[in-house]
Design goal:
The protein has 273 residues and is mainly alpha-helical. The chain folds into two domains: 113 residues; 157 residues, no CATH class. Helices cover 76% and strands 0% of the residues.
Length: 273
Amino acid sequence: MDIIIFRLAAVFYLASAALYVYYLYRTKEAISQKAYILLFIGFILHTVALTVRGLIAQHFPATNLFESLSLFSWMIAGGYLLLEWRYKIPILGSFVAPLNSLGVLIATLNPQAISPLPPALKSTWLYIHAATSFLGEGAFALAFVVSFVYLIQERYIRKKKLGGLFQKLPSLSQLDDLNYRLLTLGFPFLTLGIITGAIWAQYAWGSYWSWDPKETWSLITWLIYAAILHGRMTVGWQGRRAAILSVIGFGAVLFTFLGVNLLLPGLHSYSAM
């Protein structure tokens, strides 16, 4: 049942992404409004699908690659809906919606069966660790999009191409400020995710830290974002440099999230669940 609802949500997500991409070429408010509504409907259906799956599985739906990609895409969609409601920058949807749809499509390529959790992982810490980690990663995904748009806009200015897409994008100062806000939102959640993960590891495997590949790359990712925020607050890392570092940081997030699980097997590999 949850898979049927998930696929229906995917249809609305794809339709929203298509409209948002069209909005790049025809920046009419009616187009962005329809795209936003489709994204919202997809998000509601996705929420129902995750809830149903959680009830069936009797655990937080983030224990295999399908569930994790689904939850990650859900966080991106929900985060953007809030972002658009708060800041009214619909052009960002032209980049966020395709990213969200890509995550959903990749999720559908993975096994979707519900597997029972090993006894060691049946813990309330699963809910706390997964929720905080995905909240942080969702914020970093949005920061990545904002930074990517910043670099596009900044390139237009350097090349003195001040027509077309340039006129549709937000100002550099607005994008830089939004990037900083998203980073300061995501970093505490990433920190909590690592801390709660260490506590959970102690209960599950008898050690707070074992230098498992996932743990190691989570720490590397944390250090990257800590360096970005430290640089912004102390030596004025803003603008293009901050945007580039934010893109690099999200690359580390993706490697920690996907690359480590697929290329560097360990205690946290989905195949080990």
